[in-house]
Amino acid sequence: MFTFLKNAMTSKEIRSRIFFTLFVFAVFRLGSHIPVPGVNAQVLQSIGAHGVFDILNTFAGGALKRYSLFAMGVSPYITASIIIQLLQMDIIPKFAEWAKQGEVGRRKLNQATTYAAIILGLVQSYGLAYTFNRMAGYGLIKNANLQTYVLIALVLTTGTMFLVWLGEQITRYGVGNGLSMLIFAGIVAEVPKELYGYVNQNLIGAGDKLVRNLLPLAAVILVLVILIVIVVLMERAQLRLPIHHSRRASGAKYTAHLPLKINSAGVIPVIFASSFMTTPQTIFGLLNLDRSQGWVDFVTKLFNYTHPYGAIFYTVLLIAFTYFYALIQVNPEKVAENLQKQGGYIPSVRPGKDTENYLTKVINALSSLGALYLTVIALLPIVAGMIWQLPSNLSLGGTSLLIVVGVAIETAKQIEGRMVKRRYQGFIQ
């Protein structure tokens, strides 16, 4: 790892990309501390642990707790991306047509995603302001009228879209994975403060309770280390399908493989499932429904991943998004078509439709392992927290751990790829 970082810093281009990414992180952290006008963020401390609050606050790097410009993070844009991708599955023919048009279609879909994100941002920001103001005893908004709510919605939505633009700049001029890198930065930024708070509260001045308080912390650290090792191994694990070519130079030694990751979807299902859990809670808070009604209480628990009902539903979402996004990442139809055009085939499998069906079965089988892995990693820290009575709003929980490690691995791969490309360019020149 240290050798990789040393080699990365020796390249001027890579070094400038890393510094640019760090500069964007600094802008992100600065905006996370600029409060929204007309809001008394101190009263949010009285809300305590809450499903939607915890998820959004973690992904926004604590910005929601301070009710700053970036309080919503990129959650509305991610939710909009989910909706647009689902609509491409022949639900809206126009979107399905754009998905097949290459770069031109991709720009149109990105534009539709942006418009959907703005609409969702306005609704979600208004809903959050109204819900949290009610939960905090109507002390969050200093002058709670329609004009103030609209101003807050506009400010928060603008902050979200500015973060989306920053993410695009990281993708274009930085180390890549723009939106994921912003989520990564938000999660990592909160870890030292939470660790200090836990140590200060449970260890300093504990006296004879020091050993008893140290045991849960040591157990959690051990679990986190084991989970990080598992995540690294699973994110790098792959199945290599042999590929034969009917057209190749006579007598030439030729070996080709089609690499398929066990977790082809990466951390996207985790981000999607977490974002999906937040929107209904916002809508329910906006409607101000009475929780004494049975169905309202059930649905509220269903979208709170710290509750057993919510944990089960969160697991179902993880599994569904893992299968869904794996088939998007590795499109069996396109892979089979490209192999046939190149004269390649999988041994004992006919080219064309049979290859497509075979790849679909293999990807679904791998996704079963990937879904199980994501579920265990996401839920294990929640269960451990219930056993050892740890705070449920820790930044480095299972979901956050998957995102942090997954994004770190993908970013390292992209930097390494740029370094290899640069060496080849130097060799050719």
Short description:
The protein is mainly alpha-helical. It contains 15 helices and three strands.
What portion of the residues fall into strands of 2 or more residues? Answer: under 5%
Helical/strand content category: mainly alpha
Task: Tell me the overall shape.
Answer: globular
Secondary-structure element order, N to C: HHHHHHHHHEEHHHHEHH
Structure summary, number of beta strands: 3
Low-confidence stretches: 249-253
Mean pLDDT: 79
Record the strand order, biggest sheet: 2-1-3
Helical residue percent? 55-70%
Rounded to the nearest angstrom, the radius of gyration is 24 Å
The N- and C-terminal alpha carbons lie at a distance of: 29 Å
Major sheet characteristics: 3 strands, antiparallel
Number of helices: 15
